[in-house]
Amino acid sequence: MDKSDMQNPINPDEIMIQNEFEKLKSDYLKSNHRQKIELITKAFNFANHAHNGVKRRDGTPYIMHPLAVALICCNGMGLGSTSICSALLHDVVEDTDFTVEDIKNMFGEKIAQIVNGLTKISGGIFGDQASEQAENFRRLLLTMNSDIRVILIKIADRLHNMRTLGSMRSDKQFKIAGETLYIYAPLAYRLGLFTIKSELEDLSFKYEHPEDYASIHDKLAQTEEARNTLFEYFAEPVRDKLDKMGLKYEMRARVKSAYSIWHKMQAKGVLFEDIYDLYAVRIVFEPLPDVDDKNLCWDIYSAITDIYQIRPERIRDWVGRPKTNGYQALHLTVMGPNGQWIEIQIRSHRMNDIAEKGLAAHWKYKEKNKEIEEDTELDKWVNTITEILESPDPNALDFLDTIKLDLFSSDISVFTPKGDIKTLPQGATALDFAYSLHTDIGNKCIGAKVNHRLVPLSHRLTSGDQIEILTSRSQEPQPEWLSFVATAKARAKIDAVLKRTRKEGAKKGEEKVLAAFNKAGIETNSSKIDKLALYFGFPKREDFYYSVEKGNVMIPDNIKKIVKDKADSTWLKSVRQALRFGTKDSTEVAVEPDKEKPTFDKTKPYILSEGTYNLNYEVASCCKPIPGDDALGFINDDGKVVVHKRSCPIAMKLKASFGNRILTTEWSSHKTASFEATLEVKGIDTLGVLSTMTKVISDEFNVNIQHLLIEANDGVFEGKIKLKVHSVEDIQRLCVTLSKIKNVKSVGRVAE
Fold first, then answer.
1. Which CATH superfamily is 3-167 part of?
2. Looking at the annotation, which residues are catalytic?
3. Which site among 9, 68, 426, 708 is 20 to 30 Å from 149 CA-CA?
């Protein structure tokens, strides 16, 4: 080592940073984008300087995060220099003294605009205050109108944050994982980023259910050799056929993600061993000159079905009619050589590129084919979301749910009377179809004819239906319509009319209330109106006014008695709290000072001890967790902990929306407290099997059966047994013991 090396020792962080940047440059130079390497280098140097000396929570230099996000944009999404530069700079304005104006002066208007968009939504989609959540998410989606790349970079940012989530506190992990699964994964799916969507789901699953995640990965590893043997056995005759056709192609087996397997196990109440479609075979081919890609897909389909028997109801033609997110492929399911069903996905390299890299690749190919003038379903979805965002209520918490309706839905194709095709989410109704045609048609809809048969507004559509909408000038949207629709557009349009109607009704109701005050000779002010509203059980004045107008509340002549001054602010406050927490009769609320809410140490798990059950914590009625379940706590408004299963849909929304109220929990032993659980049993219907099961439950386990429903049909039975248990361990022992009874074929715990 010479003297200069001793004076300037090599910094390992600098080597790591430089190596990562060299990788970014190398990957970018392999892409088909214009080679703007100088601009990317300039952005890297600027960001590296701006973040110099700052470390992430895991101890790595901060610049490694923007570099990782840029690599995801480059490799995972196929984005170009503008996006890569924006990714490198995405945290500069928020975390350093540099401004958007500085970015604009150095890198131009477009990059500055993207960085500014990313800065505005930098706190995550959800803020700490409930009123901010919808507005933050609305701002995120509004960027699709100005530049879709803001969302794409934000998804890349979230993916890297999920990859490094291990350095965070467990309650923060639940919040971020829940937010990811609730919004980011569905958004990635809708934008066609299938690979990223799968990784986001798997990483969320890893942190929410670490034991299940590890178990599934172990079982996949154990069965890998058998799967490979089966694939080779299956693929050999197919390769012979495709080679004779003169095709250039890749054929490989793709295993389902751990999250997909687990989700299917939960949804169907089955074990890992019962999931038969663990993997799919994917064939990706090079196009042939003068042969349309679609025709080539069907030629390969024909070659495969000459060898293996097809399952007709499992054909999915997304070649002729791509999914809303741009996905194109031909799917079929055949009976494999060992009597096992095998799914096959057939697609060209172009289709595969769009499937892997989503929106960016979709628009790249659209640019190359200028003759394609018609908007795709993906373009239409982006336009629809923009339309919904024109005038939403930024304080409406259900705004997230409204948009999410369209994020993760499968699609169906239906027809107008003239034969035009419309794509709608699965579960869409005749009313959704009406709103997809035009807002006015939806607002005036009174019914529909589906395949020439009269149906109500709530009728659910299926692929291939032909729909004619019936309207009336006198029709107006009704509140119950919200329960009929499955699309974000329809819900938003109905909401807009109902809010307008409610506002007009509230205004008329207010006039009636003011007239009643004048008649009683009372001077009106906000405090007195609040007292009157609360007396009738309405925390919000507008709801009170509306009920007066609708005739649901009759204002008495003695309102002077109700609003007299001695009904002070303490009474008001306690009534308001009673209404908020669900007390039926507001007049029974005791006037007492507010109790101090308990504090929680979020650095440690909250212990769910038997002694504090139903005192300091309670189990959520939506998912009914029991000791041993993967669970988390939610601190409600009165400071009590409500325990949910981590997989509970309600818990997922709470993690995403109220992350600051989430607690890590840990069960202590519960020997006397009992919890509800439901078992599903199936088997061969023979004499005495039911009595044997109930005898085992009562005698061997001393468990109280609350409800028993068994149905037998054509020699088989299935049913549900609701019982009280102490823990998951009780359930597991019960399942093992019952499954050993002769003619009982399956036993498993199910959600109520």
1. Hypothetical protein af1432 (1.10.3210.10)
2. 94-95
3. 426
